[in-house]
Amino acid sequence: MDRIRISAAVATYNGERYIREQMDSIWKNLSKEDEIIISDDGSSDHTLEILKEYEGKEIPVKVIKGPGLGIKQNINAALKECRGEYIFLADQDDVWTDDKVEKVMQYLSREDCRLVTHDAKVMDAALMHVQMESFFAYRGSKAGFLNNLLKNRYMGCCMAFKSSLLPYVLPIPDEIEMHDQWIGMINDLLHGNSIFIPDKLLLYRRHDANVSDFSHGTVIEMLKKRIRLLKSIRKRQKLWKN
To answer: CATH no. for residue 98?
Structure first.
């Protein structure tokens, strides 16, 4: 089997409005050494028909049936199929800049780096108006386990990591709130070398059908979520030692 350099892991669900624009932007960043893995969680619109347009071309595209259990497990299903040395996460409705992979790989190809998170511009649904010039500035983004336990600065669609991390993060637990925080903090705990780069390499589209949200509930709700997260991390640590 030929060696795969990059796997772009995409989670889709009724994404017909924006998926073609996202796929085109991913396509521009990849080569025949790469692959695109898409887990579709039961789309009832034209998403699957659009995705078929990309199959059988120079860059391998594999579409699998998601488990129908929500975004975390849909991403889990996509990651399980990835064969690349480097994993890039992608939502169905954003747009990668043409130099995203090139810029990220400048860091991720280094021996001392296992996970990269880049900045993004937050846009309106039509990508015509900037709602936030910098997601990093909005969230006060910085690396570190404790920093991201107190306030999650990871955003999955801006993350890429080495596949050597997969055995530690998979399966993604049902009881945690966010897969991106889970992946980032596991890497922080294992290696302490997550890198946040200021390059804005994604147009993050905000619209009425977004799965993710920037709000995180009350302080009590946040504390409960963090406790569940720490319990899940502790449980996973015990598995590593066995």
So the answer is: 3.90.550.10
